[in-house]
Amino acid sequence: MDTKNIVFTADNNYIQHLAVTLVSLLENNKDEKFKLFIFSSDITDANKEKIAQIIKPYNCEVEYIVFDRKIFEHIDAGRYSIATYYRLLMPKYLNVDKLLYLDVDMVINDSIKELYETDIENYYVAAVEDAWRDKAYRNRLGMSEDAKYFNAGVLVVNLKRWREENLFDVFIEYEKNSKIELESHDQDIFNAIFNGNWKRLPLKYNQYEKNPDLDKHNLLKIFTQEEITEAQEHPVIVHYIGGRKPWHYRNEHVQKALYWKYLKMTPFKDYKPTDKSLRNIISKNTPLVIRNPKRYFKSLLSKS
User: Fold this and answer.
1) Are residues 9 and 25 in the same domain?
2) Which of 29, 36, 83, 114 could form a disulfide linkage to 62, CB 3.0–4.6 angstroms apart?
3) Are residues 53 and 77 in the same domain?
4) CB of 35 closer than 8 Å to CB of 7
5) CA distances from 164 to 4, 64, 159, 160, 228 (A)
6) What is each CA distance from 280 to 47, 272, 284, 286, 302, in whole angstroms?
7) Could you give the 3-state DSSP secondary structure of residue 280?
8) Domain match, 144 and 284 both
9) CB–CB of 174/189 below 8 Å?
10) What are the phi and psi torsion angles at 212 (to 5°)?
11) How far is residue 186's CA from residue 97's CA, in Å, rounded to a whole number?
12) 0.70 surpassed by pTM
């Protein structure tokens, strides 16, 4: 049985969500053998033991990649964790030819075998196109006129090519010399450097749609209705993008229940949302037309 290499990046604050993503991966891929590489500089021994408990019943081993965070000390990640930049280190620290990178704000809902076996010999990565970065933004990154922009939450990575082209140094050089604010941080770096040389994956492998009514207009610009429907009804990977996540009480993601399903299978099963206040309970149960009329009418227009 071939080993599938999986990479996560996380800090200690996100260990619960890493656990959920990990359990969902293992539960839906019980016939696979995995080698996990977790890039982190601060996961505690106690939390490493919890990860060990999770993977014990499965054909899986884990290696923690520890490094000096000073390499990223000049970077302001804003509302994002600096851990998102850790994946830039993959060609520097890993000696495998191919891997699957996964964000830790997602749930795997089916087998990733077909995804992992995607032929990427002539590409840097395989990924799902992003629906929100327009041509003007891509131009500011220095991308070619016809180059498409991908979401970096799910990446099938040709790491052999990354190493051969010394891409770690290329990534860091681009970031240091960038004259614009990189709003999507290392995702912008990947897109600028790869400049369209990536393989397009179906939306079902990175279903990042938050609200079917509000997102439909943008999605239809780059996906067919068939692709969107398949991703909605049979997502292989659900990606909870945005600032409000499924572990937040006020989150209203259509696939929120999947996160809680797998949370109950982790050592963090007793977690209670920290934002469940009286104010938020009232807000969440107030009709949308009252608490956010602009969003309500935008939703109505998208259906017409």
Assistant:
1) yes
2) 36
3) yes
4) no
5) 21, 24, 9, 6, 36
6) 30, 14, 6, 10, 27
7) helix
8) no
9) yes
10) -55, -35
11) 21
12) yes
